[in-house]
């Protein structure tokens, strides 16, 4: 079955450590996105990529980095520069044109 | 700026009808989405409107008025499983999707 796989589902890290969240899709979608969701808040866009080897900053890119070396993969690194990294992170993809997002199941990151 | 407003919480009774409103101000408009999100889970796509009018899909309908920057999601014959957050989202002229903060819907038996 086609879909988006995010791993791990839960992640704990110590303050000051970088951590990479995985996002893989087998839907052959061109565009991929990373969002962050905090309690009582909407989804906020971190980074997005519309084609391989190209990506753009979203509204809250500071403290994060991404790569898009393959169409299927769009990993997100949360660096030590991110002041409040504890959140629910969602990866999404969308085919060309205007359709709804397909979301992964999310990664809940807790920094202690 | 870009802004999407929707009520924070709503409560309705099983079997009833509820309407969740959404107003938006964005840089351009390429469509409006509604998503359902159960606690701790990813959002799932409910509907997409790009032209004015009503789109019906089973128990759920979504309405759009572009001139008023307004949409609503109508849920009929409410079931307990409809207890969730409902997210209104707009795609702007740069093809970026901007989300509202969501409306948490509580269904009472």
Q: How would you characterize the largest beta sheet of chain B?
A: 6 strands, mixed
Helix content of chain B: under 10%
Average pLDDT value of chain B? 94
Question: How far apart lie the N and C ends of chain A?
Answer: 36 Å
Given the C-alpha coordinates, what overall shape of chain A results?
A: globular
Distance between the first and last residues' Cα of chain B: 40 Å
What does this structure look like?
The complex is a heterodimer of chains A (112) and B (109). Chain A is mainly beta and 112 residues long. Helix content of chain A is 0%, strand content 50%. In chain A, the strands form 2 sheets. In chain A, strands 2, 4, 5, 6, 9, 10 and 11 form a 7-stranded mixed β-sheet that branches. Chain A has a 4-stranded antiparallel β-sheet with strand order 1-3-8-7, with no helix packed on it. In chain A, a hairpin with a 5-residue loop joins β4 and β5. The mean pLDDT of chain A is 92. Chain B is mainly beta. Chain B has no helices and 11 strands. In chain B, a hairpin with a 2-residue loop joins β6 and β7. Chain B is globular, with a radius of gyration of 13 Å. Chains A and B meet through β5 and β10 of A and β5, β9 and β10 of B.
Question: In short, what is this structure?
Answer:
The complex is a heterodimer of chains A (112) and B (109). Chain A is an all-beta fold and 112 residues long.
Topology:
The complex is a heterodimer of chains A (112) and B (109).
Chain A: E1 4-7, E2 10-13, E3 19-25, E4 31-37, E5 43-51, E6 54-57, E7 64-66, E8 76-78, E9 87-94, E10 102-103, E11 107-111
Parallel strand pairs in A: 2-11
Antiparallel strand pairs in A: 1-3, 3-8, 4-5, 4-9, 5-6, 7-8, 9-10, 9-11
Chain B: E1 3-5, E2 9-13, E3 18-25, E4 32-37, E5 44-49, E6 53-57, E7 60-65, E8 70-75, E9 84-91, E10 97-99, E11 103-108
Parallel strand pairs in B: 2-11
Antiparallel strand pairs in B: 1-3, 3-8, 4-5, 4-9, 6-7, 7-8, 9-10, 9-11
């Amino acid at each position: 079955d086609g879909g988006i796989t995010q791993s791990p589902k839960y992640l704990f890290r110590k303050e000051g450590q970088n951590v990479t969240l995985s996002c893989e899709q087998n839907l052959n979608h061109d565009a991929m996105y990373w969002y962050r969701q905090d309690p009582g808040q909407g989804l906020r866009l971190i980074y997005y990529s519309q084609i391989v080897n190209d990506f753009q900053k979203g509204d809250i890119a500071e403290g994060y980095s991404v790569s898009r070396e393959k169409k299927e993969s769009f990993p997100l690194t949360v660096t030590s520069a991110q002041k409040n990294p504890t959140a629910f992170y969602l990866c999404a993809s969308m085919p060309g044109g205007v359709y709804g997002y397909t979301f992964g199941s999310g990664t809940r990151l807790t920094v202690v | 700026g870009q802004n999407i407003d929707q009520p924070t919480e709503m409560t309705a009774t099983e079997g009833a009808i509820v309407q969740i409103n959404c107003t938006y101000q964005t840089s351009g408009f390429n469509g409006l989405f509604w998503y359902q999100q159960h606690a701790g889970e990813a959002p799932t796509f409910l509907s997409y409107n790009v032209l004015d009018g009503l789109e019906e899909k089973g128990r759920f309908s979504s309405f759009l008025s572009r001139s008023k920057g307004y949409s609503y999601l109508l849920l009929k014959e409410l079931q307990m499983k409809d207890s969730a957050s409902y997210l209104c989202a707009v795609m702007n002229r740069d093809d970026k999707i901007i989300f509202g903060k969501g409306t948490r819907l509580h269904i009472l038996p």
